[in-house]
Amino acid sequence: MRLSRPLVTASAVLLVAGLAACSPDSAGAAPADGDGPTVVTVGTLKGQPHLYAPFLYEDLAPEGVEFEVVQFDTSPDIKNAVVSGNIDFGVAGVPSAVSGAAAGQDVVVVAAAADGGSGIIGREGLDGVESLAGLTVGYPQGSSQEILLRLTLEAAGMDADEDLELVNLPFSDMAAALAAGRIDAFASAELGPSTALQAGAVEVASPYDTPVGRVNIGLYTTGELIESDPELVQEVVDTHVRATEQMAADPQAWADGVVAEFGIDQAVVDTAVQNIWPRWEIDDEYAAQVAALVEQMAALKQIDGDVDVDALLDTTFVEATEAGGDS
Questions:
Q1: Which of 202, 196, 214, 195 has the alpha carbon at shortest distance from 269?
Q2: Which one of 262, 284, 298, 324 has the lowest number of neighbouring Cβ atoms within 10 Å?
Q3: Does the keyword Repressor apply (predicted)?
Q4: Closest Cα to residue 93, out of 140, 56, 161, 27?
Q5: pTM of the entire structure?
Q6: Alpha carbons 211 and 204: distance in angstroms, whole number
């Protein structure tokens, strides 16, 4: 049965498993009943402005397609739900897709979703990564923000393990730990940076001046669904393109939508959207940045297996999209 509002919270395995139980074909979207619509399930993260696009899909969907949004706590949870067939698509961190591909899972990125959303933030008075020498810096181990921090330090001739006192913290604890004085700075993802900035912290350095660039969030599905129903995948990508372009064209409406959906502080969200760049294109530069991400994840032993970036990134659908034809 279609929900009256395209929103489901999936904090437990039983809930996402229930989605599969509702569909006779766990490898694809729920088929239409008679003349009814095809219902596509899309996973995203709770309360994150850089993963807001799926909440716009329903109003932008083509005739005959409806969307249900399933909220998760982490990108790996979304990736696992996609590859298991419990949801059809996921808007989530590209590093999770890389990890899945390295582990031999069937995951394919069919569009970018948002760049940026990271920050290297510190207490008042810090300026430049050189000012972090000898200080306590929080970071989420195994994340893309760890990679960005290490590369930014390396470019300044510093070593994260030797020149800093690193503290592994959850994303959600960063701003509070900085405010309490338990750390001097942190590298993390939104909304941590914007929350801290609103409380008087400062941006220490840009995390984006590395070979990884701003790569962060993508739209992915499985190779099995691409093979079995490429027309549906194209329709979803077209919808995704419209959503990301709408966000980019009107950041204030995007921010207001996030606030209305999740009840987050308006000032924090307004700050966060200035640090996020909605996008859908997969071009050569993007592919090179993903390749750099893969290289760094392997160097830090975040992944074990090899990743074929050309296989991970399927550009077929963004190249064919009609929705982006005038972009």
A1: 195
A2: 284
A3: no
A4: 140
A5: 0.89
A6: 19
